[in-house]
Design goal:
The complex is a heterodimer.
Chain A: H1 3-34, H2 37-45, H3 60-70, E1 79-82, E2 91-102, E3 116-127, E4 133-136, H4 142-152, H5 159-181, H6 197-211, H7 213-241, H8 245-251, H9 271-282, E5 286-293, E6 301-308, E7 314-321, E8 327-331, H10 338-351, H11 356-386, H12 395-425, H13 433-454, H14 458-493, H15 498-521, H16 524-549
Antiparallel strand pairs in A: 1-2, 1-5, 2-3, 3-4, 5-6, 6-7, 7-8
Chain B: H1 2-26, H2 31-55, H3 59-83
The chains are: A alpha+beta, B mainly alpha.
């Protein structure tokens, strides 16, 4: 490659990396934690709802009849039941509850007085094996909050596509990085010069980048598929199917087994028997999810779904008409469709759900490593700009990038630590508990960014801030045991180790924060660097003042 | 830098759609397999084109070269779609 082209690419790599750095850091950090989403949800919720009852007592029919008795389930909405396991015998049910509110009708329209407007609210119930409602699952959404932060940053409507575009630029940064580093990719594969600060940052950036390259490419690609698939979906639908999206969906293996509602109400019963039929039909599979369409209507159907652990990324699913027990659809091989199968493979790779905890731990380490790549990229840019002569420096830009790096990166970890603390400390009865935790998270992140913009001594601030974050993270397991030791021990006895997994993850993060603080921000050379920069600024200011006086 | 970014982003998207569409129209493979191949190729092409756009020393060159790639591919799209 020509020297000019390489130079252009190097500049673009730094520029693109810098522009997307803070958002990408949040995406990767939240994504790394989201690898343990189910564990985090369980960490937050299950110590309160431990049950010593045996799974043998579980009956879907008993649970359903209890829910139908206590709530007005929306027939037109979703109804999902997460199947219990031997380790976790309580069940989670998600559905829409119908709320009938009187319409605001004009006074003179007496004929319409009986008319009502239907609305609904999302319900999430935790239910014991014998059908008793244990609590409201909506109060335990911290794990889902982090996951949503990962894929759409909690930005309504456009967040998904925004994250997709950032992922695209991450892919561009990856490819340009490979092209730039290509000639040295083998010869300098293990190079890590720990003595020079600039070399140390560059070598860490390259080393983790090259070693984790397959992982990074997989994440960039699969992330794009999840977030920007719509772009190609539209173009395929328009160009290949004449604008008929239904034809495209059919080709893509979407099976429509929708039955028309009859408006004849019948109780939802006979699901235990259908579960046994489903187990014999699907063969070697743990059924993890059951969903019902048209709950309470004569046309209601139930779908049992499970992943076949003996095969890679293979989903099995069967649907029955509840009233007659008639089988409507059965698939044992990802709907016998390459695109459905391909997307399932991409999802499995992205979520790391095909090789147990060892793979997720590896992905977690690589994810946090990516956060370190982003950090070193920004630090190198800052160092390069800080070393420029004062007149070439853009002071505002420099301060902004410093704030993005300290406030944005460390602020994200700090806000997450505070979120975990709130998830453990806030009372369960608090109205809108999960929303409050989310608001506290964003308040912490915003406060960190503002503080970083205002504080001059960024290195010292970063060092102290990281250590405070490390202490906050380390405090969470302590609180767990002080507040909920009894529940956690019952969970351990049942072979349910989610709390322990989350605690180990948080302690590892605390250790990382402490080490980065000590090695990267607290070192004598870092402080000297900053002092040099501050001296430059002082000199420049003095010259400026002197010229004004003269 | 912004102009090269837009060139890569916009023309990269159009080129990726166009090339994948040509693959779909040319290769005699079953429909779902073809859609998957298109999906697997599309994003790397988009990102690759964007990297290429950044490798030019000026935005003008980037717009020009990328348009030169898009034009024949788009013409082939039109031809193949009209022959369908």
């Amino acid at each position: 490659m020509k020297r000019d082209a390489l130079k252009s690419l190097t500049n673009a790599h730094a520029w693109v990396g810098l522009i997307i750095s803070t958002i990408l850091f949040i995406i990767f950090f939240a994504g790394s934690l989201s690898l343990f989403r189910e564990d985090i949800i369980s960490w937050e919720r299950d110590p309160y709802f431990v049950s010593s009852e045996e799974l043998e007592t579980f009956s879907i029919d008993a649970v359903i009849s209890q829910v139908a008795k206590d709530y007005k389930v929306n027939t037109h909405g979703y109804f999902i039941l997460q199947m219990p396991t031997a380790e976790l015998p309580s069940t989670n049910i998600y559905f829409e509850e119908k709320i009938v509110a009187e319409a605001n009708l004009p006074d003179d329209l007496e004929d319409h007085l009986d008319e009502h407007v239907e609305d609904h609210i999302d319900k999430h119930l935790i239910i014991s094996p014998d059908g008793k409602i244990l609590g409201d699952g909506n109060a335990f959404e911290w794990g889902n909050f982090l996951y949503q932060l990962h894929y759409n940053l909690h930005i309504p409507e456009v967040g998904l596509y925004f994250v997709g575009v950032v992922t695209l630029f991450f892919f561009v940064a990856l490819l340009s990085g490979v092209v730039i580093h290509w000639r040295k990719i083998i010869s300098k594969f293990f190079q890590y010069r720990k003595d020079g600060k600039k070399d140390k940052l560059l070598d860490a950036h390259n080393l983790i980048g090259v070693m984790g390259l397959p992982f990074h490419i997989m994440y960039a690609f699969s992330g794009l598929v999840f977030n920007l698939l719509i772009v190609y979906q539209i173009s395929y639908a328009v160009a290949l199917y004449g604008g008929d999206q239904a034809k495209l969906f059919k080709a893509a293996g979407v099976v429509d087994i929708h039955l028309e509602e009859t408006n004849v109400a019948i109780p939802v019963q006979g699901l235990d028997k259908l579960l046994l039929t489903a187990k014999s039909s699907l063969g070697e599979v743990d059924i993890i999810r059951m969903s019902i369409d048209h709950f309470g209507d004569e046309s209601a159907s139930v779908t049992f779904r499970g992943d076949d652990k003996s095969q890679f990324s293979t989903r099995k699913e069967v649907t029955y008409h509840i009233a007659s027990g008639r089988e409507l659809y059965l698939t044992k091989n990802n709907y016998d469709n390459d695109i459905r199968g391909g997307l399932a493979v991409i999802a499995s790779l992205h979520f790391g759900d095909f090789a147990g905890y060892s793979l997720r731990i590896l992905f977690f380490v690589l994810g946090i490593g990516t956060c370190y790549i982003i950090l070193t990229g920004n630090l190198m840019w800052l160092q390069k700009r800080a070393n420029l002569r004062s007149e070439k420096q853009n002071k505002l830009g420099l301060q902004l990038v410093r704030a993005m790096t300290t406030g944005g990166f460390i602020g994200t970890i700090f806000a997450t630590a505070v979120g975990f603390l709130c998830a453990r400390l806030l009372p369960l009865e608090l109205l809108g508990r999960s929303d409050v935790i989310g608001q506290i998270f964003f308040a912490c992140l915003a406060a960190s960014l503002i503080a970083s913009l205002l504080i001059k001594a960024q290195q010292q601030f970063a060092a102290i801030f990281l250590k405070i974050t490390a202490l906050a993270l380390a405090m969470i397991p302590v609180l767990d045991w002080l507040m909920l030791s009894q529940g956690i021990v019952v969970m351990f006895n049942a072979g349910h180790f989610d709390v322990l997994i989350v605690e180990v993850m948080l302690l590892s993060l605390a250790l990382c924060c402490w080490l980065v603080s000590s090695r990267l921000f607290s070192s004598a050379e870092a402080v000297i660097d900053e002092q040099l920069i501050n001296t430059d600024e002082l000199t420049e200011n003095s010259i400026g003042k002197a010229s004004v006086i003269n | 830098m912004w102009s090269r970014t837009f060139a890569g982003f916009l023309l990269g998207l159009l080129i990726s759609v166009s090339v994948v569409l040509n693959l779909n129209l040319l290769l005699p493979i079953k429909e779902d397999t073809m859609l998957l191949i298109g999906l697997l190729c599309a994003f790397p092409i988009w990102a690759g084109i964007q990297v290429w756009a950044y490798s030019f020393t000026s935005a003008k060159k980037a717009w020009l070269k990328l348009t030169m790639v898009l034009t024949p591919s788009a013409l082939l799209n039109l031809l193949l779609l009209s022959l369908r």
